[in-house]
């Protein structure tokens, strides 16, 4: 289960996400849709902890994603299937 609790994200002074709250239950599939610039990629980056929230917290099960050790974070990322829009397969 992944839970966003009052998650906000800013880049500089520019707000991207504001007080986002939702839960994705284990085994549930979701789609993230919206116009360009609405924060879809930012949500995915936050779930993978490629970005940190400006405010709020993201829980994986009962654990705060922000408190994961490097080792725990690697194992967590391996458990998630991700396809990036720019592929990120090989450095180029």
CATH architecture: 3-Layer(aba) Sandwich
Could you give me the name of the CATH homologous superfamily?
P-loop containing nucleotide triphosphate hydrolases
At the fold tier of CATH, the topology name is: Rossmann fold
Report the order of strands and helices: EEHEEH
Helix amount, in percent? 10-25%
Which percent range describes the beta-strand content? 25-35%
CATH class division: Alpha Beta
Q: In angstroms, what separates the terminal alpha carbons?
A: 35 Å
Anisotropy-based shape: globular
Describe this structure in words.
With 92 residues, the protein is α+β, with helices and mostly antiparallel strands. It has one domain (2-78): P-loop containing nucleotide triphosphate hydrolases (Rossmann fold). 18% of the residues lie in helices and 32% in strands. The chain is built from two helices and four strands. It has helices at residues 40-47, 70-78, and strands spanning 2-11, 14-24, 55-60, 63-64. A four-stranded antiparallel beta sheet has the order 2-1-3-4, with helices on one face. The protein is globular, with a radius of gyration of 13 Å.
């Amino acid at each position: 289960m992944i839970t966003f609790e009052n998650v906000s994200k800013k880049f500089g002074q520019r707000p991207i996400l504001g007080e986002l709250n939702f839960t994705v239950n284990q085994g549930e599939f979701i789609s993230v849709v919206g116009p360009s610039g609405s924060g879809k990629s930012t949500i995915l980056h936050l779930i993978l902890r490629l970005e940190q929230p400006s405010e709020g917290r993201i829980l994986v099960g009962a654990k705060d994603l922000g408190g994961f050790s490097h080792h725990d974070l690697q194992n967590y990322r391996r458990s998630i299937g991700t396809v990036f829009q720019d592929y990120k397969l090989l450095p180029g």
